Amino acid sequence: MSDDEAVGACGVARCPRMECMVRARNEKYRMNKPFTIPMDNQKSTRASDYFGSLTFSGDVMLKRLPPEVFMNLQRTMRRNLSLDRSIANTVASAIKEWAIEHGATHYCHWFQPLTGLTAEKHDAFLSPTGDGGAIEKFSGDALIQGEPDASSFPSGGIRDTYEARGYTAWDATSPVFLLRAGDGNKTLCIPTAFVSWTGEALDQKTPLLRSIDAVSKHALRIVHALGDAKTSQVIATLGCEQEYFLVDRELFLQRLDLVVCGRTLVGTQPPKGQQLEDHYFGAIPEAVLSYMTECEERLFELGIPVKTRHNEVAPGQYELAPTFENSNVAVDHQMTTMHVLRSVARKHGFECLLHEKPFARVNGSGKHNNWSLSTDTGVNLLDPRDDTHTNMQFMIFLVAVIRAVDVHADLLRASIATAHNDHRLGANEAPPAIMSIYLGEMLTSILDQLERGESKKSAKAIELDLGARTLPQIPRHSSDRNRTSPFAFTGNKFEFRAVGSSQSVAWPNTVLNTIVAESLDLIATELEKKLRKNPSPAKMDSIVRDLLKDLVQSHRRVCFDGNGYSAEWHAEAAKRGLPNFPSTADSLPALATKKAERLFAAYGVLSTRELHARYEVQMEQYCKIVQIEGRTLVQIAITQVLPAALRAQGELADVIAATQHAGVPCPESESALRDLAKQVVALRDAASELAIATAKEVPNIEKRMRHFRDVVVRSIEKVREISDGLERVIPADLWPLPDYATMLLVR
Ligand code: ADP
Ligand code: MG
Hints:
Blueprint: H1 3-9, H2 15-31, H3 47-50, H4 58-64, H5 67-78, H6 88-101, E1 104-111, E2 119-124, E3 126-128, E4 134-136, H7 140-144, E5 145-146, E6 166-170, E7 177-180, E8 186-196, H8 205-225, E9 234-248, H9 249-253, H10 256-261, H11 286-301, E10 306-311, E11 317-322, E12 325-326, H12 327-347, E13 350-353, E14 367-375, H13 392-407, H14 409-414, E15 437-438, H15 441-452, E16 463-464, E17 474-475, E18 487-489, E19 494-496, H16 506-533, H17 540-555, H18 567-576, H19 584-587, H20 594-602, H21 608-661, H22 667-695, H23 701-727, H24 740-745
Parallel strand pairs: 1-8, 15-18
Antiparallel strand pairs: 1-2, 3-4, 5-6, 6-8, 7-8, 9-11, 9-12, 9-13, 9-14, 10-11, 14-19, 16-17, 18-19
Helix pairs in contact: 8-16, 11-12, 13-16, 13-17, 15-17, 16-17, 21-22, 21-23, 22-23
């Protein structure tokens, strides 16, 4: 549909309703007193003073644990080791005292099952003593191990219900925290991994931790081979920018599609979208700022270093970004951030939509996954610094990532494949589904030099003269920006932009760490072999150059700096042999290949059984999401849109009859009535087709996934198209759902 058609769609008749919404919103905002930090627990108003106050952090441990236990625990955390059981009781007792002093009554093992969400089962600290009294108890065993009755979590066949034992095990490297509900009620959350009784991973954290170990191990080999003896550990770092929409909660509750599916299944484009580009980085509406401030305070308490907030491109769309952290903690913090965004929104009369595409034809939401590797001595291994062309270490890591993305583009694509993200990837605002790397001019010229075996100067950051005397000269960053790339080098890190806004970042990072681990392993093995043969440090430069030359030649086809949205790129990518999997159903089979099995098994990240389980779970999830959408849309079409259309038809018929009775011919109205009646029939037919397609039983899961992709998704689009056509002609007072303009533009 063109913009012009959309403009015609918004009749003046909508305005009274919009005004009413503005009034309601303002009313609510006035009722919602400006947010102030509660002083009841003597909290300072300086964020730095209460930052991390609800986490069992290093400072708290130091105060509350005996020195030898503290040292032991710190060692465990720093080196990513498992906990020494002998100190568990002491640690548990300190955690319990601290939690109870802060008002917690319950504790839970907090884990991340394959649903992509978090799970928690609360237990009270209180235990009856048997003589009518009760004591507060929390043992070392309860801290380090749990056994949730977890038969209902997806396991992809790993765990049959008759042997449904699942265990949770404390991940001491991620801080224990107190999760505060809106009413102040606090629960002690213990980050845990979730595994079956056979030790197979049933969650997102276990393989993530394994992948972090793998990438660290092989990165360390490179760093050591290059002669850095001081580094004892390499850390994967992660910072995720979270995009989201806010809609009025009352409007949200009037839309079954938003409530059930998180996205609108019908709804015609608003007359004004993002074409004026007036929302992006615009002044943040006060009600929204009040919400953001409360979110930040809640996140600061949990030690989550949120840093940036702003309006995003689409009306009603916002973004929040933290400072990066080690990736295990960053993943846990990301899950908590999504929880806080959702729960605080309700308090402020909003609903926070994390879905990748809540509104069709309006910009979708992503989660830019900023990733790098850093040594424990503080060197960012993907920071080129000034001497880029001679910085061998940087070039090795850069080329390792290029190789990884080229060889495993299919897996990277599969790692972000969800029914939700399908609506965003490849659309005109999101990165395309073809995985490619944006490097920018400077690094591209370095690749040219590497390929030719030269070493010249690289483009340095130069000063930008702004032309006005009052303005300072500013250094121009050597890597430019390209918003169309799914995987971009942004100065000192890679930004995986195709990640979906509602998804857990654990899986994309597991895949990223593993594929890079493989590249680093390959390079380290070559390097070590050559250095053994020729141990002279003077030879190092030429050894590395030869190695990188081959790798660049073989893998630079995945690098692309142009417009990723263009049709030319699709043709060019096909010529280069890069895979293009437009939908989830096309891309998930990458998880079932021998290549994937070998990769994940070789680095101890997932056994073949664990990998297949993930494939199963993701296929199931895809089908279930599309099925739920299909059912929801049938219900909306039959019980809301159709009755509204019939009422409109009746009103129009009455008007025509009355007009003709008065002796005035009205052929235009008659023709409008005929059109409307036709659309009503078409809607009923399309809805019944959708109902049949959605209910069709296809026992084989792979075939079922293809059925949903080929038949149900299309059928949903068809119903939507007819419904959106009706929305443009039905009188506003008869339209049964809040429209896009009301949801997106009223603040
Ligand atoms: P934008 O991409 O919008 O310009 P920034 O460049 O400020 O935003 O950074 C985006 C995110 O990248 C932030 O969360 C930041 O902490 C993270 N980031 C910066 N450096 C690194 C790094 N070395 N490793 C991982 N994430 C990083
Ligand atoms: Mg970014």
